[in-house]
Write a structure and sequence with these properties.
The protein is of the alpha+beta class. The protein is built from eleven helices and 13 strands. The N terminus is likely disordered.
């Protein structure tokens, strides 16, 4: 994910959609937003960025700035394919909640009951689970724990010194960001329920919201309008053509499609009221000073002050206006962020093919949403990218 600014109180949300007809007329996006965004980009050396604003559950602005490829002077547009990174996790969680609604998946069932054979016996590919043989704690894992980042796994096994999967704490006992947990839930859907995750995401999420230029894996038609990435030192990196479906982060998308997605999610389209409430309900308190910290017993009192907690594939907090939630997505050349305020169904969605854009997100969120309690220091760390 990323690094960031001060502990901060600025954030977010302005581009969503509501259930049913809108009771009030959506406000327009912040006056002068385009000029402000371009000014901030220039100051931070950001090559390309796109944003969407949602108000009262309706998309009120979609815009793109800068370049998808600087060397060839190719402009970034609202239909340019960009890497969704970990925004994939929330889209995947939304699909999972549809299965819960249909009674096909129990969020609190043990993985031992959801898979036809013991988890350590699944040894195919890089994500096999033989490393867990002899540690019966795998039986305590549930879909809820995996979606809440409470698995006890590191983010990815390849960051472990020996590249092996292990528990760092008992499942469900604390928050610790983990893509591995989402890989395991994908395995449960594929091996336990016999589902094709790519197909389910396409029909239940992307088709539902009219996301015609979004996919969980590479499509050849993306090549004509594709964003290359830019690292913190400005070095260009070609867009990765991801051929494997990964629940933790393989989604390619556009800002126009992301606007449709988050508007649909904030409205709760395709979910019962109960499932929509469960998606954004605070479920596992977050005490750590930073998102990726594994320091045992670490407590940051600022987290409790805003009720920072894991929801279902996203993070929740108490804003001055009421309930709020967010999700980021990051790699060396990608910086994405979306923030939603439940009051007014207001959201901001920001995608960038330049990781340096994360430096300007707090200010952009403030311009659109006003001052919020968004925990920027927790999300990005103490230093900016």
């Amino acid at each position: 994910m990323s690094q960031a600014t001060r502990p901060a109180m600025i954030a977010c949300f302005a581009a969503l959609a509501m259930l049913g007809a809108c009771a009030t007329t959506p406000r327009q996006a912040a006056p002068g937003l385009d000029a402000q965004a371009q000014r901030l980009m220039q100051g931070a050396g950001v090559q390309g960025m796109a944003l969407a604003v949602i108000d009262n559950g309706q998309v009120v602005k979609v815009a793109a700035y800068g370049y998808r490829n600087v060397a060839r002077a190719l402009p970034l547009t609202t239909d340019t394919i960009m890497y969704g990174a970990s925004l994939t996790k929330t889209a995947f969680a939304y699909m999972v909640m549809q299965l819960v609604d249909e009674g096909r998946l129990n969020l609190d069932a043990s993985v031992a009951d959801l898979l036809p054979k013991p988890l350590p016996e699944y040894r195919e590919g890089a994500n096999g689970y033989a490393d867990l043989a002899g540690d019966e704690r795998w039986r305590a894992l549930t879909p809820r724990i995996l979606l809440n980042h409470g698995s006890g796994f590191s983010n990815f096994r390849w960051i472990e010194p020996d590249k092996k999967l292990r528990f760092h704490w008992n499942p469900g006992s604390r928050y610790g960001y983990s893509g591995e947990g989402f890989y395991l839930l994908q395995l449960i859907l594929e091996k336990g329920l016999g589902l094709d995750v790519n197909k389910e995401m396409q029909t239940r999420v992307f088709d539902r919201f009219g996301m015609t230029r979004t996919s969980m894996k590479w499509r050849p038609d993306f090549a004509a309008n594709l964003a290359d990435g830019y690292a913190i030192d400005g070095k260009e990196e070609p867009h990765d053509e991801r051929s494997n479906v990964r629940a933790a982060g393989s989604m390619d998308t556009t800002i126009a499609d992301q606007a449709r997605l988050w508007a649909g999610i904030v409205r709760g389209d395709g979910l019962s009221a109960k499932a929509r409430a469960e998606l954004v309900r605070p479920q596992l308190a977050i005490t750590s000073k930073q998102q990726f910290s594994r320091a045992p017993g670490e407590v940051d009192p600022r987290n409790a002050a805003i009720g920072l907690a894991a929801g279902t594939g996203l993070v929740t907090f108490r804003d001055s206006s009421g309930a709020a939630w967010f999700k980021g997505g990051h790699n060396d050349t990608t910086g994405n962020m979306m923030i939603c305020l439940e009051t007014g169904k207001r959201c901001i969605v920001m995608l960038a093919n330049d990781v340096r854009a994360e430096r300007i997100y707090p200010e952009l969120a403030r311009i659109v949403l006003g001052d919020t309690r968004m925990p920027w220091a927790w999300e990005y760390g103490s230093a900016q990218p």
